[in-house]
Each structure stands twice: as structure tokens, then as C-alpha cells.
């Protein structure tokens, strides 16, 4: 049995080219009467299934390219990078599982946070560190999301939230890289105020 790329992409049978089908009856209402090729109606007119497939593949390619550029930008030009003179809470975390020429000891992130007067909301975030592109880009991206958000909400962020903001599905090892700053945040909150007497 011949399988098309449509089968591989798990597209409904309606999207397949008729040459991969035993019958053309299923396309009778939407087929091109000349070329017998299934078509799809859009606001812009009729599109062949091959055109739709190309558009989907091109969209996936462009999305992947955008994600790579986004991560590279946040890694090379991290937001909220630096130190705070008087943080309310802080913590340092390492990920020894991810080593490389620039980070032989693994990914490292040191996080400092200023909280609201009642200690329930993040007002300012700064971090320093070094490591793989994903760990540093993830720290930059997530630090932006932390500002103005309740502490109780941030500590509940899960892998789905992280994947949504870095723009890709992550394997467990890569998730450790991306969530390093979140792990540091949870540790900082657990450790409590840097200067309890202040």
C-alpha cells in the first residue's frame, strides 16, 4: 500500500491527493473536475491540497526559525541581567547535567528579587549567570514574565507554561535548563528574606 506525506502528517483522508485513494467519490463535491485534485475553499478562493501542505510546512519552518532567533536574542542580550543592591530574596542554582565549553561546571543562575511591601507580588527581578543558550534565554524570558505577578502564581508555573514561553516542546533534560531560574525563584521564596531584620 502506498502512503503519502499526508498519511505521515496524519491529515484526514479528505486532504489526500486522489492518486492515493481507491475512489474519487469522496472528493466529488470539492474536486477539480479537470485535474481531479482535491481542493479546499478559503476566503481567498480555492487551494489544492498540495498548496495547503506546502503552507503548513512553510509555517512550521518559519515558526522554528522565529523560535531560534528569539532564544538567541534573549541569550545574547538577556533582559533583567544584573544585580540588585538590596534584594528581598535571592538564590543561586546550578544544573550540573548541562556542561559545555563556556560552562564546564554546568548552567548557573543567581536570582535576586524585590517584592511588594506585603511580600505577595514581584516588583523587580535581576539575574546573573552563564550556561547554555536555553538556560540563559529561559532566564531572560521568564524574568520578564515574573514582574508584576503574584508570588503564589509564579511558584505554580509548570512545564507547559515554560514550553509556551520558550516556544517549543522540551525533553526532561532541556526542561531543567529552561526552568533553572524558576527553580531559583522557588528556592529564594523558601529561604525567605535576605535581611529579615530590615
From TrEMBL:
Entry-linked InterPro entries: NIF_FeS_clus_asmbl_NifU_N
Pfam families: NifU_N (PF01592)
Domain NIF system FeS cluster assembly NifU N-terminal as annotated: residue spans: 71-191
One term of GO molecular function: iron ion binding
GO process annotations (BP): iron-sulfur cluster assembly
Gene3D superfamilies per record: 3.90.1010.10
PANTHER family assigned to the protein according to its UniProt record, in alphabetical order: IRON-SULFUR CLUSTER ASSEMBLY ENZYME NIFU HOMOLOG (PTHR10093)
UniProt-recorded name of the protein: NIF system FeS cluster assembly NifU N-terminal domain-containing protein
Organism for this UniProt entry: Halorubrum ezzemoulense DSM 17463
